[in-house]
Amino acid sequence: MGSESSVPTDRRSVLAALGSGATVLSAGCLQRARNLTGWRSTQPVTLRIKTLPTDADPYALALAREIASWFRAAGIETEVLPMAEQELMRQSLLRTEFEMFVMRLPEKFRDPDALTTLLHSRFADAPGWQNPFGYTNLGADEALERQRRADGAERRATLERLQRTVARTQPFTLLTVPDDIRAARTGAGPNWQVTDLRSPVGYLRLAGEYESGSEETVLRVVTTDRRATTNLNPLAVEFRRGGALTGLLYDPLARSIEGELTPWLAESIDLVDGDPPSARVTLREDVRWHDDEALTAADVAFTYDLLADTTLGDDEEDAEVPSPEFRGQSSLVDDVSVVDDRRLDVTFADADRAVVPRALTVPILPEHVWRDRTDTAAIGGIPVGTVTEALVSNNIPPVGSGPFAYVRNTPRESLRLERVEGHFSAREGADFPDWIADPAVDALSVRVVGSDVTAVETVADGEADVTGTAVGAATVPRIGRADGTELVVRRSDRPYVLGYNTRRPHLDNPRFRNTLARVVDEQHLGEHVLDGYARPAVGPLQGTEWYPEDLEWDGGNPVVPFFGRDGELNVEAVREAFREAGYQYEDGALVGGST
């Protein structure tokens, strides 16, 4: 807003200025002008929260309903709309047809560089977990770009500044970080307490520790997530809750094993400092796809080309369609050149040496299968916009090079994968932990059931070895009472968030979002909705070395503290805050406000 003398202050002058269009007013000035003219909106503020039903997620619907009750107490008419997970993903992540959603963030956003695709404004119109909020903040953009190029103390300071900006402007409100609860059959042998079933490496650990007296050893997993039985496309964002199963089918150049990024499909990765940095990658000898075709450096180069543009540059309008699921990693790669069948040179984008290895964790895809999936997708012969077949194909049967191969599936009911004989990870002399190099499991069987309770009972009855998806805290007593069944509780790195579509009226106002966040009691949600199997936090990097001390939870949220205590909302304090943000109340309903 300009100086006081530059803005008309009497009612007649304001009306004249508004009528002529001669004066351009900022949001604050506009609100002041509305007050002077007697204008105010009579349209109540209404919001809708989209989320998952209870049979798809044990907590999401209950969290959304609790939040809606606080919003209603604050005078905001709020509706909760549960829907099937695939449809929620499509509406929220592909078509931006939402005002707010309650979902869990993918685990990949624990990597600080992954926040680039989550929050940078240049991804605001991209599909998938690429800034689905439409968040635009120049300070955040600058910090996201700088952290890629900086190292050491400079990178840490930049990331801390970024997190403070995000906590203040609230593109999403972090609700709670749940514990992952599972039931496991104690007689199976593995150390369930150290196993992480959110990752393919966790399944490989189980496969190496499993015990059975039968001729064929099968790890039996029961799940409430049907999507893995209908779609095994690692690029299809609406079909992925995580990449554990597709990660068994496809090999990346490197995997995180016991906390270290370790060459996997690559025999060696020689990083070269430079401007930009580069790497000489040498693949392992005699690696073959599951259809027995040879895997070569050309497949690796093809994969990075496909992830950067799933049309491979063949689109008539020359519009790139990058893969939303791996855009963060692939955007770190500037060029891949093939030296020979086993060697390739990777030139990275302008990024620090500590950041670029993240680019080597994408699934490598067979060119002879995926090259024919670059055309624009169509339904009933009608093109569906800038989406290619690569992003919507169900990819069954999948052809990968991973330690497990697809055998069969029954959609929405079951899936069977079998161990690949001769996979490089189990070859003699392979430089991997024993539980990878000497696998004990011959097959992985996935069975789908309708609820958490049924999943736990399936394990308790001896018909499954472990619940592959986490179950709700309400099942803990059942697990404790069941003979031969073990309760497995692990800290999760996937928080529930209330995501805001900042493209929509009111939600495009950071002050409105900041006030909304103060209507939510995160501590209460963890204690009462998740029965204490959760912890509060302010941002997704909580618990990492990059998290600033001033954002640590200390009896409350240090940035957007709750308007109340123990879940009880101080309605008068909320109303005063909304009035200060430019809103009014009519008959108890929140109305108006500058946006």
Automatic annotation (TrEMBL):
The keyword Signal applies. Residues 260-588 form the Solute-binding protein family domain. It comes from the Archaea. One of its GO terms (molecular function) is peptide transmembrane transporter activity. GO terms for biological process: peptide transport. Keywords: Signal. InterPro entries: SBP_5, SBP_5_dom. Signal peptide: none annotated. PANTHER family: ABC TRANSPORTER PERIPLASMIC BINDING PROTEIN, PERIPLASMIC BINDING COMPONENT OF ABC TRANSPORTER. This is Peptide/nickel transport system substrate-binding protein.
